Amino acid sequence: MTAPLDRRPQSPVSAVFLIARREFVTRVRTRVFIIGTALILVAIVGYVVLQQTVLSKPGNLNTYKVAYLGEAQSFADPLAASAKALGLAVERRQVNDESQAESDLRKGDLDVLIRGSASSPQVLVRDQFSPTLHSLLLSLVRQRVLDSQLAAAGLNPAAVQASLASATVQVQTLQPLKSAGGGNRLEVVIAGFAVALFLYIALLTYGQFIAQGVVEEKANRIVEILLSTVKPQQLLIGKVVGIGLVGLIQLGVISVFAFAVTTVTSTFTVPTAAAGVLLYGLLWFILGYFFYAVLFAAAGSLVSRTEEVQSVALPITMLAIIAWLVAIGVLTPMFDGSPMSTVGIALALIPFVSPVLMPTGMATGDISPWLALLGIVVTVVTSAAATWLAARIYANSVLRLGARVKLRDALGRRS
Fold this sequence. Notes:
This protein is mainly alpha-helical. It has helices at 12-28, 31-55, 76-85, 98-107, 131-152, 157-166, 185-220, 222-226, 232-264, 275-300, 309-312, 314-331, 342-348, 354-364, 369-397, 407-410; strands spanning 62-68, 88-93, 112-116, 121-125. The chain has two domains: 12-42 and 181-410, no CATH class; 63-148, D-Maltodextrin-Binding Protein, domain 2 (3-Layer(aba) Sandwich). Strands 2-1-3-4 form a four-stranded mixed sheet, with helices on both faces. The chain starts with 11 loop residues before the first helix and ends in a 5-residue tail after the last helix. The mean pLDDT is 80.
């Protein structure tokens, strides 16, 4: 049971703190939070185990069983090394003669037989020859012929190869594309795209939690008890802050656990260049969450049944969906090294779009510090206005049970 709120007069900050603490403590103790978080952590461990024990086994790569006869045996090591560089595995099989090799090919115990001279080898397969192995083998054969021709001409093949390797093309750019931290730009853009998707899902998820929570308290008439102690605006802000802290704690636990497990097991590593976008993503999650959360809370106060939450929150959900579609349109062209477009930078200043675009633009340096600061100020001011509007709707609607409250009535003067 949650301790009752102190009915003595409270300062606005104290009232918001008490409501936020109540929301936080109540929700982190629920089975939904505990079991849901535990299941996600178990899923992360399951993925790592699957990656380590199944997906990373050599047998799960494209493995080719290859036998060699005659001069072609000299291709065994070079072909295996070239294939490995492409993520393929070439396993050498021993055969005594062509008849055994042909028998193994028919039974499927062998994939390829390479025989004949080093300058013009012959390949025998059961049905078809891998185009990749064909290209690799052809390259090796041509290199072998070239080396022979160079030796015949009195040239040192190794020296010629060294000269070829030292030949370079120098490229100069007038406007070098790099991230703000000087790291790999592509890594930053990829991380930014992932962060944008993550923020989109998180904003919708926790926004819906708030709308559901408002409706449940309204239906259970708990809100009537709470409003006898605190003002509607304080209740609204406290609820948003409390649930937001729950979200941050949950996301933090999941992120730290996932990072620790995947790093220890070397499942994957987070590029250093992408660290900036993750930090900016945290900042914009907080800013974006508050903007969307107060709107979801106001929407939830208009109805009395949980079945109606989806419909009443649809306009806000559509805002988040539009923001994600804008992020796709702006970030996708950046994968080829292009800077964020002028239109993309302008869109990043729109408050409901800022959370999914600003982290990437700030990390790549496409959005200058003064524009980033302007975006933060615009978002904070817009969130303050949204909070004032949401508090008015919340105060006029949260005590009305029964039919859905019309927005016009919710915006009217309080009785």
